[in-house]
Write a structure and sequence with these properties.
This protein is about 20% helix and about 20% strand. The chain is an alpha+beta fold and about 375 residues long. The longest helix has 14 residues. This is JmjC domain-containing protein.
Length: about 375
């Protein structure tokens, strides 16, 4: 792979990408001023982005499209996440096991389920804030050089100045209530104000092109780019409930890396249309449909109930052109999986529809 600026423009210039500031500014709207001026919709295609990004505070932080994912290797050592069972976050540690919520449609029990796969691209300096994510993460650097800092929140959670507060649950980490970050400026750490940091252990790591870093869920981390050239990275996340399955691993193709595009990724992206980043877990959407049917005492899912569910508030479908036609098309796609499509899906059949099909209303109805 040789994704130079010229190659990216020639081969993938048409791909639309979401943008963020190069210097992450969570809860700081001023960080978006330059981005708002360059790309008011926080979205450009790669060709246009590479034309304007140098010297600007704009950074591709998006979903990698399938056409690019075919050229990214998924390390075989990350296979064998069970598709039969998973940790049950509704129990208490040590967690009991339960049936996997995302079974593989073709029965590949060794294929670790990927929730979301991301594309990162920028020249010049970039840096994040000190934060944790709820999911396991893998970050593979294709070009450029980065420095990472890691800190174990299980050691210091009560001493850190959390931005959101009470989101990290040390004694029940599968139920962390959200991601959170620490109030500090990574460029100017004040050890008088943040004096407790003096006695906290941390890890530092330099990532070179070709390196992949595994980031445990809930691990505090901060990352910055060290050179001025073009950096391209790919990352992906999988659920913290994922467990290793030794029996299923006997059938896994461990002798070679699969392309990222061949992995079972819940939110895939074509390169155009809705960029499905940070959207609702489709299981939550299924539950909301089920609750709506229950409230209305419906045996079969009606078009009206489905339309009301996917067009609430600021949902994409709420303001879409040809809204009725688009909603009906999605409804028909789901209803085709009913035992009797002429009647519609029963509440008990909602879970039998492949979750990849629920992704579309979960994203566009969010």
């Amino acid at each position: 792979m040789n994704w130079t600026r010229e190659v990216l423009v020639e081969r993938f210039g048409w791909v639309d990408a979401k943008l963020e500031p190069k210097k992450e500014g969570r809860s700081n709207n001023t960080a978006y001023r330059e981005l708002d001026a360059v790309a008011p919709r926080h979205r450009l295609n790669i060709s246009e982005y590479l034309r304007v990004e140098q010297g600007k505070n704009v950074y591709v932080v998006s979903i990698i499209p399938q056409v690019m994912a075919w050229e990214v290797a998924h390390p075989s050592v990350l296979l064998c996440g069970s598709r039969k069972t998973m940790a049950n976050k509704n129990t208490k540690p040590p967690y009991k096991l339960t049936e996997h919520e995302y079974p593989h449609e073709s029965g590949h029990l060794w294929m670790t389920h990927v929730f979301e796969a991301n594309l990162w691209m920028a020249s010049g300096r970039t840096r994040s804030q000190l934060h944790y994510d709820k999911e396991w993460n893998v970050n593979c650097l294709l070009s450029g050089r980065k420095r990472w800092f890691f800190m174990n929140p299980f050691w210091y959670d009560k001493e850190l100045q959390w931005a959101r507060g009470r989101k990290f649950v040390r004694d029940d980490p599968l139920n962390n209530r959200w991601t959170d970050w620490v109030y500090l400026d990574p460029d100017h750490v004040d050890l008088i104000v943040q004096h407790k940091l003096r006695n906290m252990d941390y890890y530092e790591l330099i990532q070179e092109a070709g390196d992949c870093i595994f980031i445990p869920y809930a691990m505090l981390h901060q990352v910055e780019k060290l050179d001025d050239g073009l950096q391209v990275a790919v990352s992906w996340m999988f659920l913290p409930e994922t467990i290793y399955d030794e029996e299923a691993c006997k059938d896994a193709p461990l002798d070679e890396d699969l392309p990222m595009a061949a992995m079972d990724t819940l939110y895939m992206y074509t390169g155009k249309g809705v960029i499905p980043q940070g959207y609702n877990d489709p299981l939550n959407f299924v539950h909301s449909v089920d609750e709506a049917m229950k409230r209305r005492n419906e045996k079969y899912l009606t078009l009206k109930t489905f339309r009301d569910t996917v067009t609430q508030g600021e949902a994409i479908l709420a303001g879409a052109k040809d809204k009725k036609k688009k909603v009906k098309k999605i409804f028909d796609l789901l209803t085709a999986h009913a035992k009797d499509p002429s009647k519609g899906l029963e509440r008990g059949e909602l879970g039998k529809v492949p979750l990849r099909l629920w992704c579309k209303p979960a994203a566009e109805g969010d």
